[in-house]
């Protein structure tokens, strides 16, 4: 007789998302997701999914075996833990005052020393402990909204010392918190005061990256991705290319901001460099979309950005129709203060006209792909990490439909078969 960690019993629906080991879903495969009615799921003592299937089959298969915890899911739905593929969650210097300035454009505020530069000044002054405490609180809010894997960017330091401070804060969160993290070095998030973009790029390539490499070698830091804000007035295509190539050479996945406020040919560059993902893409070209589809470079769309900055929406429909791997992120940052992937999925459905199955795939398997982690995350399949969300509703679509209702709907959030949030 063997002991297992968790049994989720007799759910009305278990949304697997996919069931054949797919690493991402595109085009017509997004029309209907793999869903089991009246099903159960078992997580083993290693935190990995051991079995998922019809409730009676699981009951027979595991009769007489023991579980550290059993949850009766009658009348409820089980979904994979949500994956947030783009956030900026480590910072000091909130920008609530800017919310009232939304008649000025994002770039007007940026050029006037507000925006990212404002947060950079405060983040430089903040202690590591202070940054960790606010970061931990933000991650807890994300977990309560169902996120179990989150991409986290540095980029409010710009100088090496502060960038490392931010990355260390992420490293500590990886050790101390129960959700999974993908860490992104984003030292090229803005051009620091007193430098040109070329000088900033030179500094990153000759000082920041070698230091990151040395710390990674020693196992002191785990950095997964490299990012650049490729934008008119920030980093142009050439400096972006140099920085991304430098990161790629040291083994980082390329995952960067592009084609947000102006068409930059960032999508084309991402496809050419073998990027895992390009984010934003409100201004992507037709050629860029085709190139991303061909290169299996995922598009991380950020519905909160277009909504809050009143930008035009990225062309999600065209991307999906052309076979691009579309993922979603909250873009949580001091400008877009949103922790909630359920709200992000809702906004994607309304404003980008994606369907509910497309939105859920974009916030699970495809978001995991954008982080190079879809072998272990993003669907409820045997062998994957036991990360799940249980909602008190008879159809999974309620998680998207009830805008802002996730606090009421989410009963449990589970990572590696352990309950990390339970509604009181
Ligand atoms: N566009 C660049 N970076 C962020 C905004 C960061 C900030 O304004 O602090 C984004 O993805 O929206
Ligand atoms: Zn961003």
TrEMBL record:
Keywords: Histidine metabolism, Hydrolase, Iron, Metal-binding, Zinc. Transmembrane segments: none annotated. Pathway: Amino-acid degradation; L-histidine degradation into L-glutamate; N-formimidoyl-L-glutamate from L-histidine: step 3/3. Its cofactor is Fe(3+). It holds the Pfam family Amidohydro_1. Coiled coil: none annotated. It comes from the Eukaryota. It catalyses: 4-imidazolone-5-propanoate + H2O = N-formimidoyl-L-glutamate. Its EC number is 3.5.2.7. Belongs to the metallo-dependent hydrolases superfamily. HutI family. This is Probable imidazolonepropionase. It comes from Apodemus speciosus.
């Amino acid at each position: 007789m063997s002991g297992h960690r968790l049994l989720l019993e007799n759910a009305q629906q278990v949304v697997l998302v996919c069931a054949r080991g797919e690493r991402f879903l595109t085009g017509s495969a997004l029309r209907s997701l793999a869903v089991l009615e009246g099903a159960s799921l078992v997580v083993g003592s290693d935190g990995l999914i051991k079995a998922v299937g019809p409730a009676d089959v699981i009951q027979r298969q595991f009769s007489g075996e023991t579980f550290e915890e059993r949850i009766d899911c009658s009348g409820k739905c089980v979904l994979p833990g949500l994956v947030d593929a783009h956030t900026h969650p480590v910072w000091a210097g909130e920008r609530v005052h800017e919310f009232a300035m939304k008649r000025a454009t994002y770039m007007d505020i940026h050029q006037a020393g507000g925006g990212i530069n404002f947060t950079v000044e405060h983040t430089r002054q903040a202690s590591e402990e202070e940054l960790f405490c606010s970061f931990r609180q933000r991650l807890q809010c994300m977990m309560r909204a169902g996120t179990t894997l989150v991409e986290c960017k540095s980029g409010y330091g710009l100088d090496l010392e502060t960038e490392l401070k931010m990355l260390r804060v992420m490293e500590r969160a990886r050790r101390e918190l129960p959700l999974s993290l993908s860490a992104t070095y984003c030292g090229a998030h803005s051009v620091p005061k007193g430098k040109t973009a070329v000088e900033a790029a030179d500094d990153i390539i000759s000082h920041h990256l070698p230091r990151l490499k040395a710390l990674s070698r020693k196992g002191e830091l785990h950095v997964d991705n490299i990012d650049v804000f490729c934008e008119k007035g920030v980093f142009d295509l050439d400096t972006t290319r140099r920085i991304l190539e430098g990161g790629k050479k040291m083994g980082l996945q390329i995952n960067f901001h592009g084609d947000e406020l102006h068409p930059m040919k960032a999508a084309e560059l991402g496809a050419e460099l073998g990027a895992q993902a390009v984010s934003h893409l409100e201004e992507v070209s037709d050629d860029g979309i085709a190139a991303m589809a061909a290169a299996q470079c995922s598009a991380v769309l950020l519905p909160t950005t277009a909504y809050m900055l009143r930008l035009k929406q990225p062309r999600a429909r065209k991307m999906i129709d052309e076979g691009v791997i579309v993922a979603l992120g909250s873009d949580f940052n001091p400008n877009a203060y949103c922790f909630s992937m359920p709200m992000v999925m809702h906004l994607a459905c309304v404003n980008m006209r994606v369907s509910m199955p497309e939105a859920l795939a974009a916030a699970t398997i495809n978001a995991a792909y954008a982080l190079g982690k879809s072998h272990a995350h993003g669907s409820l399949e045997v062998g994957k990490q036991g990360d799940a969300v249980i909602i008190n509703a008879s159809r999974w679509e309620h998680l998207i439909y009830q805008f802002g209702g996730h606090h009421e709907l989410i009963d449990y959030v589970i990572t590696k078969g352990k309950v990390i949030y339970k509604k009181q």
